[in-house]
Amino acid sequence: MKINPEVFDAIKNNKPVVALESTIISHGMPYPKNVACALEVEKVIRENGAIPATIGIINGEPIIGMTNDEIEEFGKRKGIIKCSRRDLPIIISEKEWGATTVSATMILANLAGIEFFVTGGIGGVHRGAQETFDISADLDELGRTNVTVICAGPKAILDLNLTMEYLETKGVPVLAYNSDKLPAFFTRTSDLNVDYNVKNPAEIASIVKNKRDYKLDGGVLVCNPIPEDYSMDPNYINKEIDKAIDEMNKLGIKGKEETPFLLSKIVELTNGKSLEANIKLILNNAALGAKAAIEYCKLRG
Ligand code: PSU
Ligand code: MN
After folding, report:
1. What is the pTM of this model?
2. How confident is the model at residue 70 (pLDDT cuts 50, 70, 90)?
3. Nearest residue CA, atom 20 of ligand 1?
4. pLDDT tens column, 99-148
């Protein structure tokens, strides 16, 4: 793996580092907003006192901490493969370019020694998974790999209830940030209760530290509600999501293409409003992730 020297130094010296994924750049948002967002997220992490490490694979080599030029290339380049756990060894062998999903980013972050990872949304149990078995590899990764993921909650393109059940089975702590309800990405809340409401970054750090000390392998999922000002009307967004899912089923889109299709269709149906919300919630997650990483470094000493 190629670890950026600044990131390498930080990891060695117990300075806070926050990992970032690249599927969100290559397959989650349109160019050029994807690049602007990825650079802005890095900036927010720095302003909050941590060091960003955007992760992806270039010519078969995992990169831990992309340069701005590399981020730009990930935003523009056609044909970058969406890479989750199963794809990793193939993309490395074939010297391909890979945009890492939550699962693959967790694996590479963990290998590099990075505990905290900020993103927008995770994959989950898709609606109708009882028939299709479409359950994101992200959930199993959370069950086994020691990385804390800060997101805005699972998106309503998924079955939120089944996603929570699956995470419980896999032993993944789900922490809502200053909320008693599960945040649902575009909206601050859903109708699902969460068991754990955490109040500040130090509390997150303490839970992560205890999970590591007690060798309870696996990730921690922090769900941070989208800021009030950008939270979308649930009736409106859920209707647009339903339309996008109908269209996907009509077109027969399946497997790894589903999530990217739905994300771009929803941007189209909302005239870009969902994209603005998506960007704002990631920036909000970046600030929280940086603060939690700082608290964790203090605890680890
Ligand atoms: N949700 C989003 N934006 C994204 C993704 C999910 O709001 O970009 C990406 C993440 O990389 C996540 C992946 O890991 O989609 C999940 O894909 P799948 O559902 O195929 O497992
Ligand atoms: Mn899937």
Report:
1. 0.98
2. very high
3. 256
4. 999 999 999 999 999 999 999 999 999 999 999 999 999 999 999 999 99
- As a three-state string, the secondary structure of the chain is CEECHHHHHHHHCCCCEEEECCHHHHCCCCCCHHHHHHHHHHHHHHHCCCEEEEEEEECCEEEECCCHHHHHHHHHCCCCEEECHHHHHHHHHCCCCEEECHHHHHHHHHHHCCCEEECCCCCCEECCHHHHCCECHHHHHHHHCCCEEEECCCCCCECHHHHHHHHHHCCCCEEEECCCECCECCECCCCCECCEEECCHHHHHHHHHHHHHCCCCCCEEEECCCCHHHCCCHHHHHHHHHHHHHHHHHHCCCHHHHHHHHHHHHHHHCCCHHHHHHHHHHHHHHHHHHHHHHHHHHHHC
Catalytic residue at 96?
no
Ligand 1 touching residue 24 (CB < 6 A): yes
Concerning whether 21 is annotated as a catalytic residue, the answer is: yes
Summarize pLDDT for 148-173 with one digit per residue, the tens.
999 999 998 999 999 999 999 999 99
